[in-house]
Amino acid sequence: MNHSTLASHRQAAGFTLLEVIVVLSIITLLIGIAVPSLTSLSDSENVRATRSELENLRTAVINYASDTETIPATLARLWQDNTQGWGGPYVDAPVQGKSLSADSYDTDAWGNLYQYIRLSATQAQISSYGPNGLRDGSQSGDDLELLVDITPALRQRTQEKAEVLNGAIDRYNSAYLPGTPLPTTAVQLVDRLQATGYLPPGNSWFRDAFGDFWQLSGSPVSYVFSSTFGLPLGH
User: Do residues 192 and 183 make contact, with C-beta atoms less than 8 angstroms apart?
Assistant: First the structure.
């Protein structure tokens, strides 16, 4: 091999090495661009999944309230039988490919625990701390927050109970008036209706779904109504 041929081979080898360096640089650049994009895409999918799960949790809390007339103290109450009227579990259907259970429905799509705060007798807040797992608020940070208000569910439950009670009062009055009118207090009235078979057993009938004793109207009593509404229901 002469000097000319050797130089040619060295030059070819040099260009090949340079090309490799250029290609590696381009790949590194592309990875640097792609990784944040993939991370952003993953976070977007997790946000959608978490929002969907938050909505399902809100529905579960409302269903819990419809059955028990209370707002749960913790999310665990949704899958653990714990109070009178409980009809759960309220989170037992697949969502986003996950089985709703104590192992999956207490964490968001990033694997962080949901934060549940009971704000009042009728409201609660469910939060995910988002991708960074830190509490920084939904306004300035990446937290996802959802307010749950069970007032409409309690109103509906109150109306349903009033309809049953007033139907029982009508049937009792048809059978016993004028000789034996109903008592004029909610507790005694319910006791009488249950004793005579016009109302199902249970002490939940003494009050409306908001926890207030029924207001009685008429002499003799002809219907009950809720002080929360200020007008008769189911009559």
Answer: yes
